[in-house]
Every structure is written in C-alpha cells, then in structure tokens.
Amino acid sequence: MASSTSAAPIGLALLGAGNIGSAVVAAVQRAGERYAARVGAPLEVRRVLVRDTSKARPGLEPSQITDRIEDVLADEGASIVIEFMGGEEPARTYIEMALNSGRHVVTANKEVMAKHGAALLQLAYDRGVRLQYEASVGGGIPVIAPLSRDLLANEVTAVTAIINGTTNYMLTAMTQQGAGYEEVLAEAQRLGYAEPDPTADVEGIDAAYKIAVLCGLAFNVDVAPTEVDRRGISTITARDIAYAAQLGYVIKLLARARLVDGEIEATVRPTLVGASEPLAKVDGVLNAVQFEGDLVGRVMFEGPGAGQGPTASSILADVLDVAQDVAQGRKPLAFIPRRKLRVRPAEEHEARAYLRIGVLDQPGVLAAIATALGDEGVSISSVLQYESEYTGGDEGTAELVLTTHGAPGRAFAAALDVIRELDVVREIGNVLPMEG
Ligand code: NAP
Ligand code: HSE
Q1: Mean pLDDT of the region 139-154
Q2: In angstroms, rounded to a whole number, what is the distance separating the alpha carbons of residues 209 and 129?
Q3: Is the pLDDT of residue 370 over 90?
Q4: Active-site residue, selected from the candidate residues 115, 210, 252, 331
C-alpha cells in the first residue's frame, strides 16, 4: 500500500475473511492513505485465518491465507489481531492466544464478549494490550465507545435497546403490512436479513448476548447471557400487533437492563412501546440504544445495526484507535474488575402487561378472569373483547385483551396458573410487558 508516512507499518492479522472480514480488507485497501495519515503509520494486512484455504479471496494473496492459527501468531509483524470468525469456539481460544502473545485484539464477537468478556478484558489489561469490541453491539452505531468514554461520569441506571435488526425488520413488516409471522420470516430470509436457521435472532439469543455485553460497561457488572430473562418474537401474531395499535402501542423486541435498588434486571422481550416513544419509531433493520444516566438524562443512538459497511466502520474505528496507541507508544487504560450484583429473576420484575386470552363468549368469563388477577393484586387498566367475526376463531369464542397496571412477575404467573385452568379459557395467547 502506498503511503505518505515513512513510519513502519502496523501489521494486522485477520481471523476470518467472510462477509465482514472482506469488507474490512476492501476498506483498508481503498482508504489506506487516509488511515495512515490519521494513525501516523500505514496499516498492513498480513496473515489471514480462514476455514477453506481454496476459496478465492479478493484483495488477498494466496500466500497470506492460512487455516492454522499458529501461522498467524508466528508472524511477528502483526501487532493487532482482528477477530471476525464468529461463534464461541475456537474464537475465544484464539483471542486468548492473541492476547497472551502480546497482540491487541479487535473483535466483532458478541457471543464471546457476552460469555467471556470480563476474563478476556482482565487478561488484556494484565498483558498491557487492548481488547476492543465496538462492532459486537449495534453494528455501525457507536455504543461501546460512548459508554466507555462520553458517559463515564454518569451512574447509568437503564439501557433500553432495539439491538437485533432481523426481528425489528420482521415486527416492522408485521406492523406496516398487517402480515403474519411466517410470511415476514420468509421475506426476511429471501432478503438476506434472516439466516436460514433464524433461531438466534427470532428467539432473542443474539439480543441477549448484546444486552449482557452492555451490562458490563453500563453498570460494570458481569451478567451472563443465561441470566437475561429472554423471550423471542415467534409467538407474536398479526392480531397482537393490531390490538397493540388499537391501544396506541407498537410491539418491539426490547432488550432492557436496569439498576434497581442495587440489583440488576436484564430482559429481552417483545414489548408494547407507546407509539409516541422514540424507540417506537425505530423501524426496519435499524437498531437504537437508549441510555439513562444521572447527569445526562436520556440519550439515544440510532443507526444501522448490521451489514458490511456499518460493521466495518466500527471495527476499523477500533483498529485506528489501537493503531494510534501503537504508533505513539501509549499504554491502555486500567480495566476495573466488575462488581458482583444480584441479577433479579423475572418473578421479581415489576411491569405493566398486555394479556391476550382466548375464551368462550359466555356470561361470567370476564368476572372469573378479573377475580384471578385481583386475587394476586394485579389491577386491570383496560379491557377489550374481540368476537369470532373479528378473530376468525370458532363461533361462540372471543379474544379478551386486557392491560394492567404494574405488578411483579410472580403475581402474573400465579394469576395465569388459575386462569389457564378455567373451563371457559381456551388459550393464554400472549402476555407482554408494556412501556410508556
Ligand atoms: P461469515 O461471513 O460467516 O465469516 C466468517 C469467517 O470466519 C469466514 O471467513 C470463515 O472462513 C472464518 N472462520 C469461521 N470459523 C473458522 C474456524 N474455525 N477457523 C478458521 N476460520 C474460520 O461471518 P460474518 O458475517 O463475517 O460475521 C463475522 C463476525 O462478525 C461474527 O462474530 C458476527 O456476529 C459479527 N458481526 C456480524 C455482523 C453482520 O452484519 N454480519 C454485524 C455485527 C457483528 P471461510 O471463509 O473459509 O468459511
Ligand atoms: N443477526 C444480527 C441482527 C446481526 O439481525 O441484528 C448483527 O449482530
């Protein structure tokens, strides 16, 4: 790469050269001069680890390609390792090896950072190197850097986010077209937004990794992805979307984390969001992350949460930042070991709720359901009934849509146990939290 600086190049080793890796290679080639001027030294892509060494890799020489991590780490000329292989293993092991070998690491891997972030960040600090992960959450949206720097003076009390583009695309399509879940999933797969196996996105697994990563930074607490109370969107029907709209709400897959009385609540759930709330207006594949801090109040970052360009943008921001440190011999900031705070189980989370219940259209049904809720201290806020002409259900059936005032998860669970057993109840449809 031609460069206007005479400083020694800063070598990059790449772990992966797929969708995102190839976009990073292309950007380094296209904008190398500009990056060199920023850093004070040119960037040089050196060895590249892949699975299949026989594939053509545009912009890379066959001699750069290897399927052995040992070849990559033996290259003394590479001081920054960029990991975009994906998956937990062997990515975690390779990141650990790179840090142990004294390399700085930039990763896009939410699963590794969610499950092993604290240990790897501690290791990086112990080795005097940096581990950066901006692209692991929110694709091209700056999220990790603002939390690590710009919001540092705040006690962050809440993070509320739409951090999965696939599900946001699907819920938006259901809202705008009145389409059903299966129909929009097929469309999302055809457009390449959803994977052939969509489980990680539609069941909220991807979003749970990302909110766990954000908990580490926002609250300085290690939250395991398994501690995130997670529900996906696969049970959401076109009727839920329509009922929510009639109530003045939009259904979004919200990832939330809150600091409440010194404890953490972390959830990923389809949620009714007030239609006038900023997050309700984040549509399609866009992501948005909203932080609440004691000094700043509420701030929201919105933008493309995935894709080659946006993800390469975040990865290269980390690479340029680390490369500046390398060029100027700067030392990384301290890593503060994470606090241990209790993560509350869902039964302790207090929220308003939307309930859709399939019933027989008979006298006393509403009273029986209201009694079951009232006995557990759940106060009803509104009630709507949709008859079979509207729902398309069997004659003599109806759907009740209730909204409630705030109550703890355990109260809803106990009331629903009673409601489920009522002879007149055919189905508990969806029970969803409400915001705004
Ligand atoms: P991808 O297209 O599947 O690319 C993965 C690359 O890693 C391929 O080059 C693959 O080699 C290589 N690889 C995978 N396992 C390997 C192994 N065991 N040994 C050696 N090489 C291996 O994935 P991607 O879409 O680029 O995503 C990469 C990472 O970025 C993931 O962590 C993902 O979560 C994250 N990310 C992606 C997006 C997005 O929009 N796609 C957004 C944000 C973050 P072959 O080429 O030989 O198969
Ligand atoms: N599957 C993810 C999404 C890609 O749909 O947002 C980025 O992590």
Answers
A1: 95
A2: 24
A3: yes
A4: 210
Task: Look up the CATH architecture of domain 145-304.
Answer: 2-Layer Sandwich (3.30)
Four-residue CA torsion sign, 99, 101, 66, 323:
positive
Ligand nearest to the CA of 113: 1
Alpha-carbon Rg for the chain in angstroms: 25
- Name the amino acid, one letter, at 103: R
Reply yes or no on whether 210 is catalytic. Answer: yes
Query: Predicted confidence band at 238 (pLDDT cuts at 50, 70, 90)?
Result: very high
Nearest protein Cα to ligand 1, atom 4? 18
List pocket residues of ligand 1, CB cut-off 6 Å: 16-21, 49-52, 55, 67, 84-86, 90, 108-110, 135, 139, 306-307, 311
Report pLDDT for 2.
45
CB neighbour burial string for 353-385, b if at least 16 within 10 angstroms, e if fewer: bbbbbbbebeeebbebbbebbeebebeeeeeee
Q: Cα(352) to centroid of ligand 2, in Å?
A: 28
Which residue do the tokens 């190398």 mark?
32
CATH of 349-435, one of 1.10.150.170, 3.50.50.60, 3.30.70.260, 3.40.50.300: 3.30.70.260
Question: Which residue in 207, 210, 164 sits closest to 188, CA to CA?
Answer: 164
User: Where residue 5 falls among pLDDT bands split at 50, 70, 90?
Assistant: low
Q: How far apart are CA 255 and CA 265, in angstroms?
A: 11
What spacing in Å lies between the alpha carbon of 393 and ligand 2's midpoint?
35
Residues in Cβ contact with 373 at an 8 Å cutoff, skipping those fewer than 6 apart = 379, 380, 402, 404, 415, 419
Total-model pTM: 0.96
Where along the chain do its domains lie? 10-139+308-328, 145-304, 349-435
Distance 184 CA to ligand 2 centre (A): 16
What pLDDT does 80 receive? 98
- Confidence band for 392, pLDDT divided at 50, 70 and 90: confident
- Kindly state the average pLDDT of the residues 246-264: 97
**Minimum CA distance residue for ligand 1 atom 43:** 139
Q: Looking at ligand 2, which atom is closest to the CA of residue 139? A: 7
Predicted pLDDT at 337:
83
433 Cβ closer than 6 Å to some ligand 2 atom: no
pLDDT in tens, 284-306: 999 999 999 999 999 999 999 99
pLDDT of 4 > 60? The answer is no
DSSP class of 221: B
State how far the Cα of 182 lies from the Cα of 179, in Å rounded to an integer. 9
CATH T-level topology, domain 10-139+308-328:
Rossmann fold (3.40.50)
